[in-house]
Design a protein that fits this description.
Elements (H helix, E strand, L loop, with lengths): L1 E9 L2 E6 L2 E9 L2 H11 L3 E6 H6 L5 H10 L3 E5 L5 H8 L5 E4 L1 H5 L1 H11 L4 E8 L2 E4 L4 E6 H10 L4 E6 L11 H10 L3 E5 L5 H9 L4 E4 L1 H5 L4 H7 L3
Helix pairs in contact: 1-3, 4-6
């Protein structure tokens, strides 16, 4: 299982949120590039980055930060937030981003996900499924749809998507453990590679996710709060 340490960017700074609430943004690191380099030094291959400003605005805001991180950190960058079009995806992929994440855009326009996979390849496109009480949330988590997360996952699989990132918004940033019930239900419903996001607290959560056959685990607040050591997480992720 892959470990994806997370760097969320708001106003050019590394922050973390509680349950996706932008009012709770808290700076957690001095410098995004130095933070990414520390992840690489620990042995990580990937970093998960989010343009929080972009997710609200629906367009690229902090693009230069992500492109620089991809160029200088030695890490593969998986990026979400504000990616709404083929042009957005092409912009990032042509500038060294390894994988782009469609969130709200995939729900509103499923054909975009299908077109993206066909144009850029399955390895370079992921769909983020963010849910509140099992229902998919959109627009920076400010709105909740009437679509169940399993329903959207199956639709994406039929369109050719092979990478899904599932976030339980109620657990995001709360250090309360991942939603294993939802994650295992998702694993059993589709053949996609599933990355767990939200709630990872310590190495025991990493072991549980690896045992549940997850493709990856995104770790944010646990790293910055010191409840999870990256080297320990990397060792536990080997199943």
């Amino acid at each position: 299982m892959l470990i994806f340490p997370a760097i969320d960017i708001k106003n050019g700074e590394c922050v973390r949120l509680y349950r996706g609430d932008f009012a709770t943004a808290q700076r957690v690191a001095e410098d995004y590039l130095q933070t990414a380099l520390s992840f690489a030094e620990a042995g990580c291959a990937w970093v998960h980055m989010v343009d929080l400003d972009g997710s609200l605005a629906g367009r690229r805001i902090n693009a230069a930060i992500f492109v620089e991180t991809a160029a200088k950190s030695g890490l593969k960058v998986e990026l979400g937030g504000g990616i709404r079009s083929m042009q957005d995806m092409s912009y990032y992929l042509e500038r060294g981003i390894s994988r782009v994440i469609l969130g709200s855009a995939a729900l509103r326009n499923p054909g975009l996900a299908a077109e993206a996979v066909k144009e850029f390849g399955t390895e370079h496109v992921a769909v983020g499924i963010d849910a509140k009480n099992g229902m998919v949330a959109t627009e920076g988590w400010l709105e909740t749809s009437n679509i169940h997360f399993i329903q959207l996952a199956r639709q994406m699989e039929l369109l050719g998507v092979r990478y899904l990132i599932y976030t339980d918004i109620g657990r995001d940033g709360m250090l309360s453990g991942p939603n294993l019930a939802h994650l295992t239900a998702l694993r059993d419903a589709v053949q996609c590679n599933i990355t767990a996001s939200g709630g990872v607290t310590d190495v025991n959560d990493i072991r549980a996710l690896a045992a549940s056959q997850m493709y990856g685990a995104i770790c944010g607040r646990s790293i910055y709060a010191g409840t999870l050591q990256l080297q320990e997480a990397l060792a536990a992720a080997i199943r």
